[in-house]
Design brief:
117 residues, mainly beta, Immunoglobulin-like, 6 strands, 33% strand
């Protein structure tokens, strides 16, 4: 049993939650009540990223699911194969690197910020 929720598990959990956001409900919690006593909580940088409010529904795009938000995007690849999605200029990773293409492995996710937001 891992000592904590992995970064990969945390990112796909948050991105999948964002796909289902409705209205002003914007609280995500994954705590020790859901894990064994040996596991510890982990805090990753993407937990602090403000992506804003939903600006449309979750939709399929280039073999992934995509959700536009006022200050970013959530992207999830729920399939068993790698998937690549083309992005417009102005998308940043959580570490502030600009990206114009994103390749996600099987069952991976990304949280992207919009530059200037």
């Amino acid at each position: 049993m891992p000592a904590q929720l992995s970064e990969h598990e945390g990112r796909i959990s948050v991105a999948s939650y964002v796909m289902a956001l409705e209205g002003d409900r914007r609280c995500f919690f994954y705590g020790t009540n859901y894990k064994t006593a040996r596991q510890q909580n982990a805090w990753y940088p993407f937990y602090d990223v403000e992506l804003g409010t939903p600006q449309g529904e979750c939709e399929p795009r280039d073999a992934v699911y995509w959700r536009p938000l006022s200050a970013g995007r959530a992207v999830v690849n729920p399939t068993g194969s790698p998937a690549t999605v083309e992005l417009l200029r102005g998308h940043l990773t959580v570490s502030a690197d600009e990206v114009d293409e994103l390749t996600l492995g099987p069952k991976q996710a990304a949280l992207l910020k919009l530059s200037g937001r």
